[in-house]
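Progress against Task 2.4 (sequence-to-structure conversion) is shown through the following example record, which the project officer requested during the mid-term review.
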Amino acid sequence: PGRHRDVRRSTITRRPRNNDTSCCAMLRTMLGGFHRAARKVPRGFSALASDGKILPHGGTLVDRMVEDQDEQADLVSQCEGRVVECSDRNACDVELLNVGGFSPLRGFLNQHEYEHVVEHMRLPDRDLLWGLPIVMDTRREDLQPGMKVLLKYCGQDLGVLDIESKWKPDKAKEAKMCYGTSSLEHPGVHMIATERGQYYIGGSIHGLGLPKRVFPCKTPAQIRAELPSNVDVVAFQCRNPVHRAHYELFTRALHADNVGEGAVCLVHPTCGPTQDDDIPGIVRYQTYEVLKEEVNNPYIHWAYLPYSMHMAGPREAIQHMIIRKNYGCTHFIIGRDMAGSKSSLTGEDFYGPYDAQEFAKEHAPELGMETVPSLNVVYTKEKGYVTADVAEKENLHCLKLSGTKFRKMLRNGEEIPEWFAFKSVVKVLRDDISRRAKAATAGDAVAA
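Structure tokens generated for the chain above:
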């Protein structure tokens, strides 16, 4: 499929918040110190690196990997047998620290940095914007500042951490400041309260290796080398399979008013841990790979991000923008209810549908990036995909298929309309359903 040169652009109207008690409203109140209109920062992508790419956050792409084997062995010996096994989430963070996805960080935040990021959404020494604290948790009493500890994951050495500080964090404060709520009904709050250990340890990382994954995660340096120079790069973040409406959304974004001619899109899904009811990372990866082959669009680049979602709404939107800037992106598509979450009890949203969009747009100039609001595209009988305002203006007949209905049709083997989903993606999802059904049947047979 080629690029859409005749895209009709819709006017995005921001809806007012329902009330002032939303999580984002609380975040704005508590973090009012960094909503300073007087702050003037030059547009970051007007200052390009010598290769014609946007400069990383802080100006330099960090690389913590130690290549010399003797140096690696010496670092491991200095740990004196101390080992910490990383969780899936920890491993994602270590990988992004090692390869510079979290530039300018050179390791897990120490106590001073952590407290400053929680309270001010900024790194203390350089006053750089930073969305969420990157921390290493532990339940170990014996680990103390001044020690080195080996970080392992599934039997693999990932790095050595120089412990600069160890502390017992105020998790209730972290939750309130970063997520806008301290309710355990929020999946991110539940994670920091129940999954993480009672202590955080911070310090610089010496990278020894990257997790061996079934899906390859290219480093920022590798992706930057593949992206064209001196053009805008629009990032599309997702954590679910890409369907037709998503594809329309990010291909049309290349022709937004604030995106330059010749722009490309980096489809950069998160393949780390997300929510329990999300499709497994390996299956999502397979859907992206078959779709990449099916569309074969030279203006679309594909890569995978080893990032663990926090569902932190507005502040996570900032985190995603910083990461994508490090991967070479100048623009970021902000979708409706990005990184949003619902109460595990009531099903009510913790954030307004446009909170993350407004928050990201407010801080984009300081990052030297621009946001691209995601268009509300609908499928019509008469004209195929158009924006919702065009459909309403021309009184077109819209076809709709809910996610619940789609999943039911998948399970029942019903025909999925091609206007809704790509055939290649549907096949991967159906194969996964079939595999899981066979595994469940086999398990029942063994139990019997």
